[in-house]
């Protein structure tokens, strides 16, 4: 690996860290101006000013914002994101109990969506202009145009209310068999896969078509290579960077879409925990969950950039 690639990799990593720091400031500033606080939520609207002031002092809400941000950021960097303002439990324990559920949901979704999307995208690129390509592209555009909450709501109406094949809510704690696991994950995974597969398929199709129209592919065809060998041995290796970027960007959608999906299906993940924290004004919990989502998104985007850099033949041969 030459020095140019190492320099570009270092720049991408440094940019990701600076972006994460900027996001932490923005998230803290936005949560600080939300109406009400944890003390107001706990005591209610009828609480006296003296009681509110005492509880705010106990929770550390009476200190200036920059001081609270410094304390929170320092604790986060040392692995101690603080204590929940509502339950008085360590935020790390609350997040740790829910994060595996969200990671499991994301892993199952990726396990199904990535192979399907790549297969459809490559097939559409190889047979571009055919009835299959037109049907797949039309379906992808239609699915992308529908918001995920509508897809989830329609799934509940069809499979839970009308057909009664699947439960409307996901009870992960009651999984004792493969059948129960399929029922618990079927509709959340289906709702997430619909949009992710459509987005990934379109980007994969565009990346492969771009390589198939390159001059070197015409030379490969003139040498008598079969269509399958042309795609698998020549076009796909050079499309790894764009395809990896498409996969990473599509999977980063999980970080936003999972918030809606977990809320609709009452899935006990970190996104549902974050939504509950916002309603209760539990700022240490909300900030930690937000930083986890931002870190995951930046990690996926940075990995996509790194794959594109490493897979670039011009950089490898400089």
Give me some keywords for this one.
318 residues, MetI-like fold, globular, mainly alpha, single chain
List the helices and strands and how they pair.
Layout: H1 3-32, H2 38-43, H3 49-59, H4 65-77, H5 91-126, H6 131-144, H7 148-162, H8 178-212, H9 215-222, H10 227-238, H11 240-264, H12 270-279, H13 283-310, H14 313-316
Helix pairs in contact: 1-13, 5-6, 5-8, 5-11, 6-8, 7-8, 7-11, 8-11, 11-12, 11-13, 12-13
Summarize the structure.
This protein has 318 residues and is mostly helical. It is built from 14 helices and no strands.
Written description of the protein model:
- This protein is an all-alpha fold and 318 residues long.
- It has a single domain, classed as MetI-like (MetI-like fold, Orthogonal Bundle), CATH 1.10.3720.
- It has 14 helices and no strands.
- The protein has helices at residues 3-32, 38-43, 49-59, 65-77, 91-126, 131-144, 148-162, 178-212, 215-222, 227-238, 240-264, 270-279, 283-310, 313-316.
- Helix 8 (178-212) runs antiparallel to helix 11 (240-264).
- It starts with a helix and ends with a helix.
- 30% of the residues are buried.
- The model has no long low-confidence stretch (mean pLDDT 79).
Terminal Cα span: 10 Å
Strand content: under 5%
CATH architectural grouping: Orthogonal Bundle
- Report the sheet with the most strands, covering strand number, pairing sense and barrel closure: none
CATH topology: MetI-like fold
Number-wise, the strands total: 0
Q: Could you spell the SSE succession in H and E letters?
A: HHHHHHHHHHHHHH
What is the tally of helical segments? 14
Number of domains: 1
What is the residue-mean pLDDT, rounded to a whole number? 79
CATH superfamily: MetI-like
**Low-confidence residue ranges:** none
Fraction in helix = over 70%
Shape: globular
Report the radius of gyration as a whole number of Å. 24 Å
**CATH class, anyone?**
Mainly Alpha
């Amino acid at each position: 690996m030459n020095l140019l690639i190492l320099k570009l990799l270092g720049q991408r990593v440094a940019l990701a860290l600076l972006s994460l720091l900027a996001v932490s400031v923005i998230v803290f500033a936005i949560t600080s101006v939300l109406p009400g606080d944890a003390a107001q939520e706990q005591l209610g609207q009828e609480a006296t000013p003296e009681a509110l002031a005492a509880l705010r002092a106990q929770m550390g809400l009476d200190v200036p914002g920059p001081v609270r941000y410094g304390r929170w950021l320092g604790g986060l960097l040392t692995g101690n994101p603080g204590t929940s303002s509502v339950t008085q439990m360590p935020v790390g324990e609350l997040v740790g109990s829910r994060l595996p559920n969200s990671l499991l949901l994301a892993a199952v979704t990726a396990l199904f969506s990535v192979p399907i999307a790549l297969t459809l995208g490559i097939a559409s690129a190889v047979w571009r202009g055919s009835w299959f390509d037109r049907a797949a592209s039309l379906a992808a555009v239609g699915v992308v145009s529908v918001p995920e909450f509508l897809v989830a709501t329609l799934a509940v109406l069809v499979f839970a209310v009308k057909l009664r094949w699947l439960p409307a809510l996901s009870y992960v704690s009651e999984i004792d068999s493969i059948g129960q696991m399929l029922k618990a994950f079927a509709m959340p995974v289906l709702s997430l896969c619909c949009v992710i597969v459509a987005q990934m398929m379109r980007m994969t199709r565009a990346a492969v078509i771009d390589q198939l129209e390159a001059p070197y592919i015409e030379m490969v065809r003139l040498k008598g290579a079969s269509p399958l060998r042309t795609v698998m041995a020549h076009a796909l290796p050079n499309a790894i960077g764009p395809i990896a970027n498409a996969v990473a960007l599509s999977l980063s959608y999980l970080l936003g879409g999972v918030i809606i999906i977990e809320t609709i299906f009452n899935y006990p993940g970190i996104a549902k925990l974050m939504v509950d924290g916002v309603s209760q004004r539990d700022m240490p919990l909300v900030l930690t969950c937000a930083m986890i989502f931002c870190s995951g998104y930046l990690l996926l985007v940075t990995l996509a950039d790194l794959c594109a850099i490493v897979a670039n033949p011009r950089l490898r041969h400089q």
